[in-house]
Amino acid sequence: MKKPIHIVSATIVTVLLLSGCVTENGDRQTDMQLDRKVDSVLLLMTLDEKLGQLTLYTSDWDVTGPTIRPDYMDDIRSGKCGNIFNAHTVAYNKKLQRIAVEETRLGIPLMFGYDVIHGHKTIFPIPLAEACSWNLGLMKKSAKLAAKEAAASGLNWTFAPMVDISRDPRWGRVSEGNGEDTYLGACISEVRVHGFQGRDLSDPYTIAACIKHFAAYGAPVAGRDYNTVEMSEISLRQDYLLPYQKGIEAGAVTAMASFNDLFGVPATASKYLMTDILRDEWGFEGFVVSDYDGIDQLRDHGVAEDKQHAGELALTAGIDMDMQSAIFVDFPALSLEEGKVSMDDINAAVKRVLRVKFQLGLFDDPYRYFDESREAEIVFSEELMDHALQSALESVVLLKNEAENGRKILPLTAPKKIALIGPLADNQLDMLGSWHAAGDHTRVVTLLEGLQKKYTSTEISYARGCDFYAEERSGFSRALHLAKTSDVVILAIGENQEHSGEAASRSNIDIPGIQEELALALIETGTPVIVVIMAERPLTFPVLNEKASAILYAWHLGTRAGDALADVLSGACNPSGKLVMSIPENTGQIPVYYNSKSTGRPDDPSNKYTSKYLDVSNNPLYPFGYGLSYTIFEYGEVRLSDAIIGMNDTLEVSISVKNTGDYDGEEVVQLYVRDMVGSLTRPVKELRAFKKISVPRGEEHKLHFSLTREDLKFVGGDLEYIAEPGDFKVFIGPDSENLKEAGFTLKN
Ligand code: BGC
Questions:
Q1: Is residue 284 part of a domain?
Q2: 296 included as an active-site residue
Q3: Is residue 233 part of a domain?
Q4: Pair (571, 675) in one structural domain
Q5: Kind of pairing between the strands at 721-722 and 714-715
Q6: pLDDT, tens digit, for every residue of 540-580?
């Protein structure tokens, strides 16, 4: 029977008032108040209603995994589903919310989750690209605006930020993360959580964040998605955990378990990860959601005999919400009877879920995210579209810029004729990238459109040239003709959006198909070729790298891709992006990353018996931190305040950076540290600080960094963070290889 909402809400509110925990003046709730509210609702709930709150189903609107629950609306109506994902727009979500609030006994509101990974409808660059901006303020703003747009579309929970560190570009999901470095990844994790959640989750312009995929999902063996993870516990803690921890400390109210197993236990069944580390060590108070079907997959992992057993393993490990397995909704009742789980286990999970619903303000007003006029005003608003451009501008990485006749090929100031070629040159859909949520490709500005707007008196001709994979070369002749009759070729090649993301691992990460063959043929014409590589992972292209006149790594830049690229190519914007993942020379080098260990036989070209390959150098094609500018930055010497510091001292480090080129520019100044002798082997360098500065041409900036014992710590043999006395080196420079250095000693 349908009940009017105010009566249902009144039931809950009355209980809350009686329990003395509603602040009528809307004051922010203290933890104690919140717990009392949660307890008062829990008191009203039957076991079935509790299990419903632990259940999350996808709508059929946008399916992101292998299974679907066709009758999810009936599940909501019968109280068997308390949370929905992959449904959006005010109209649709309001309809679902009405069912939960008006047609169920208690009227507990639904939470609406979605993968708002790099924008909701207005799409920003893929996260890996945006990380190349090294601009934390920019990334925070992206998360904030994505939250604003998503919240206006009826959502209150994003499955982001994804903060999995990865050193393996074969893995398709590097696109969603922040690259190979733990320190940078942790800084980004923190700001993205702040961006999504703001200061107060009950602000209807914010949404709940979800730290994922916990843990070490970015290190699958051989880069194959969902594969086993093999690593030492020291490596887990040293290289992988910090970004999750920083996201939790920043206040993320939810976390997602990863698909992989680690130390022989699938994360979904790992009490060590979900309870010991997440809750006991880090103090996480929010709820943990499984990944898509993750609980049922415990059977495939071979640790659960059947669904009931899978549910028991997950619940007792510390998973609170079941995404899509439809196991928590039924089986814990049986397990309870059999004494395999306790009512305390179930109540603890329900309380965590309800707590977040209270924090979101859903009990105050379940319809607070459903305002059609707000939706119309915010979606694709100028604020979002402007930010999409800014973010894209800062994500582009200039890898190569050769001089022709004494002048660098870029920026391209006044060409008479441009030949624009390639399958990504006039392509809207692929600019959105993988996990583009509700992104609308019809709003995307392509490179062709961007160039036409920018170069109004240039003749621009366009040819697709070839496809991503087909062996069809019939488009070559027109492309070559255009190249021969133009001043310059701009060639947009790389991956389409399907080549990356989930379930998109590749064993060979070259530029797909015959695109490189086309590129080399164009270069043969003698017309300078500017290659714009669009992709969601580092690709390998050593031959093209040798021959192209200029290379821009342009990722998938989102809704304003074409505008941003036209600004960069023309010089309206001076590129400042720096790689956050090394670009390998070839696939066999993987994993290749800057913070490797020395080994007992460090690479020495003159000595056969050292750690190296016979057929390729140890170095990547382009290292972590690398990216050129149209101007030149000259670095001074590294100056230290002291040669010796004590454990409680602060070392002041300074360096000057001068813009000696012809353009104003931005530079990411990077500081690395090396612990020369440790009780465990230490990396040859580790990023410990960075600053992005803007330096007008001709000017010099002096930069100051402070290092304390905290910056020198590492995970020791007993898994504690320790700083050991001894000699250290500090390096500063524009990337992880081109560095100035100085040494100091840390004393006890
Ligand atoms: C992915 C998650 C995502 C979920 C819901 C899963 O397949 O691994 O990252 O949040 O689907 O779409």
A1: no
A2: no
A3: no
A4: no
A5: antiparallel
A6: 999 999 999 999 999 999 999 999 999 999 999 999 999 99
| pTM over 0.90, yes/no | yes
**What's the rounded mean pLDDT across residues 397-415?**
94
Sign of CA dihedral 659, 662, 667, 673: negative
Diameter of the chain measured on Cα atoms: 84
Q: Token digits for 44?
A: 């009203």
291 touches ligand 1 (CB under 6 Å): yes
- Residue 710 near residue 726, CB atoms below 8 Å: no
- Is 274 in contact with 318 (CB distance < 8 Å)? yes
* Ligand 1 center–CA 732 separation, angstroms: 38
| Protein residue with least CA distance to atom 10, ligand 1 | 159
Q: Is residue 670 domain-resident?
A: yes
Task: Name which residue sits closest to atom 12 of ligand 1, judged by CA.
Answer: 64
Alpha carbon of 294 to ligand 1 centroid (Å) = 10
- The pLDDT tens digits for 687-721 are 999 999 999 999 999 999 999 999 999 999 999 99
For residues 525 and 669, state if they share a domain: no
Whether the CB-CB separation of 125 and 558 falls below 8 Å is answered with yes
Asked if pLDDT for residue 320 goes beyond 80, the answer is yes
pLDDT score of 18 more than 90: no
Give, as one character, the DSSP assignment of residue 79.
T
Whether residues 396 and 540 share a domain: the answer is: yes
Give, using CA atoms, the residue closest to atom 4 of ligand 1.
292
Note the residue count of the chain: 748
Ligand 1 centroid vs 47 CA: distance in angstroms?
28
Tally helices (H) and strands (E) across the chain. 22, 29
pLDDT tens sequence across 483-531: 999 999 999 999 999 999 999 999 999 999 999 999 999 999 999 999 9
154 C-alpha vs ligand 1 centroid, how far in Å?
A: 19
Q: Pick from 575, 591, 625: which residue ends a domain? A: 575
Q: Is the CB of 61 under 6 A from ligand 1?
A: no
Q: Residue 536: CB within 6 Å of ligand 1? A: no
Neighbours of 1 (CB within 10 A): 3
d(CA 195, CA 148): 10
Annotated catalytic residue: which of 168, 239, 291, 675? Answer: 291
In the sheet that holds 459-463, the strands lie side by side as 397-401, 550-553, 529-534, 488-494, 417-421, 459-463
- The total of structural domains in the chain comes to 2
- Ligand 1: residue of 56, 60, 64 to mutate (most ligand atoms within 8 A of CB) is 64
Residue 63 Cβ < 6 Å to ligand 1:
no
Please report, for the domain that includes residue 647, its CATH number. 2.60.40.10
> What percentage of the chain reaches a pLDDT higher than 70?
96
| pLDDT at residue 216 tops 70 | yes
